[in-house]
């Protein structure tokens, strides 16, 4: 008898700033990362925008939020709001 071992994989958690909240139950978050260039050894900044699921429309532009990976909710959304770290002034 063979047993199937199901291991829950760790979900990615990112931190970013809300840049748009015009959609219903969706916010756009800008996530920046820094890394060292492999050849020139300079620090490089890269950014990427993610659409996140915000069921209660809590996010406002300028908020710092934490987002977590989830199963695809729509064509573009596969991240959801985990928590709001800091409110915009």
From TrEMBL:
Keywords: Ribonucleoprotein, Ribosomal protein, RNA-binding, rRNA-binding
Signal peptide: none
Alphabetized Gene3D superfamilies for the sequence: Nucleic acid-binding proteins
MF terms (GO), sorted A to Z: rRNA binding; structural constituent of ribosome
Subunit structure: Part of the 30S ribosomal subunit.
Record's function text: One of the primary rRNA binding proteins, it binds specifically to the 5'-end of 16S ribosomal RNA.
Similarity annotation: Belongs to the universal ribosomal protein uS17 family.
Protein name: Small ribosomal subunit protein uS17
Organism this protein belongs to: Candidatus Lambdaproteobacteria bacterium RIFOXYD2_FULL_56_26
Lineage: Bacteria, Pseudomonadati, Pseudomonadota, Candidatus Lambdaproteobacteria
């Amino acid at each position: 008898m063979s047993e199937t071992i199901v291991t829950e994989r760790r979900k990615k958690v990112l931190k970013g700033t809300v840049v748009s909240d015009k959609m219903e139950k969706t916010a756009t978050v800008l996530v920046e990362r820094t890394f060292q260039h492999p050849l020139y050894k300079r620090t490089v900044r890269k950014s990427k925008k993610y659409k996140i699921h915000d069921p209660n429309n809590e996010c406002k532009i300028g908020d710092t939020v934490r987002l977590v990976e989830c199963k695809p909710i729509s064509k573009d959304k596969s991240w959801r709001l985990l928590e709001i770290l800091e409110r915009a002034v």
